[in-house]
Amino acid sequence: MREIFFSTSFIGGLIVSALCLAAAFWFADFQGLLDTLIDFDPLFATLGLVFTFIHIFIRNARWVAMISVRVSYANALWAQGVGFIFTLFMPLRLGDGVRAVVLAAIDKVSVWSSAMSVIVERGIDVVALMCLAAVLVPFIGIDGMPASAMAKIALAIVLAMVAAWVALKLIRRFASVRVATMAERLKEEFTMTLRFIGQPGVMLRVGLWTLMGWIVGVFRHWMILLAFVPDATLVQAAFLTIMLTLAISVPSSPGFVGVFQLVGQQALVIPFSATFDPASALSITIALHLCLLFTYTVIGLIGVAITAKRMGEDHMIRSIFDRARAWKKKLN
């Protein structure tokens, strides 16, 4: 544990968080930010929090549907909860890998199958995100955007891709698993997962859960937008959903702190400057992030408490890393 908190990736993540937070607050008027945070509609804010919980439950149902063996919905949810805790406090989205390890420890599924379902899940999200972006293009008036706005959005996408590439390089650089063995097993599991998801019944379930998840995800953002800006539209919420999904998909800072605020703020201000100013946009992203952190913490703490008993370990976090190291040794 000590080596993680003193690692280059963790310290680098904290620096990224600090720089992004500083930039987000630099763009906003502080007094305007305070006024906006105080003056919001509690009904819409509560609905946003409720939709955040529903969104997590839907995504968990999709994850269960993607795994080739029958696993308990509750076990998957608690494994996700443990992953949430790691996502909040660790860099590089370690929570995704942790939930795969935890599910394999408390249910009848291999680590490989569990991990591959997470990887394929991310791939499905990318496809869904691209489809939503294609649908939105005619509605957000891309042609009418100033050239500077288009350049900033393009730059943000390029930076996200570069950050993802750097993160993958770092992971590959410091991984101790033999690449040849890992690649062969990944290919086998990937083929099996795709074959399973390709079954008509499974494909239908996964597709429906994905559609429902994205609809609820857009609506949870819309509710928070309406809590601060009554004139906010569904199209603006959908565009914000796309940009925030890109932001939190890139392995970066613990809990997405800073990255979430800066990307969300600019995603509202750049294309929709007539509706949002930097202060109101930052207030919205802070509220959205608080909803996300609250749901992650609640489900995460419950997940940690339950899985610790299931795994029979007093020091569960240390146990998770020990299991991960043991799994890697089997490949060597």
For the termini, the CA-CA separation is: 23 Å
- Per DSSP E runs of 2 or more residues, the count of β-strands stands at 0
Secondary structure: helix percent: over 70%
Helical segment count: 14
The main pleated sheet reads as:
none
Rg over CA atoms, rounded to whole Å, is: 20 Å
Which tags fit this structure?
332 residues; 0% strand; mainly alpha
Strand-helix topology:
Blueprint lengths: L1 H4 L2 H20 L2 H9 L3 H25 L6 H17 L4 H13 L4 H26 L10 H28 L4 H19 L2 H29 L5 H16 L9 H11 L8 H34 L4 H16 L1
Helix pairs in contact: 2-12, 3-13, 4-5, 4-10, 4-13, 5-6, 5-13, 6-7, 7-9, 7-11, 10-11, 10-13, 11-12, 12-13
What does it look like?
With 332 residues, this protein is mainly alpha-helical. The chain has one domain (47-331). It has helices at 2-5, 8-27, 30-38, 42-66, 73-89, 94-106, 111-136, 147-174, 179-197, 200-228, 234-249, 259-269, 278-311, 316-331. Helix 7 (111-136) runs antiparallel to helix 11 (234-249) and helix 12 runs antiparallel to helix 13 (278-311). The longest helix has 34 residues, at 278-311.
Give a quick precis of the structure:
The chain is mainly alpha-helical and 332 residues long.
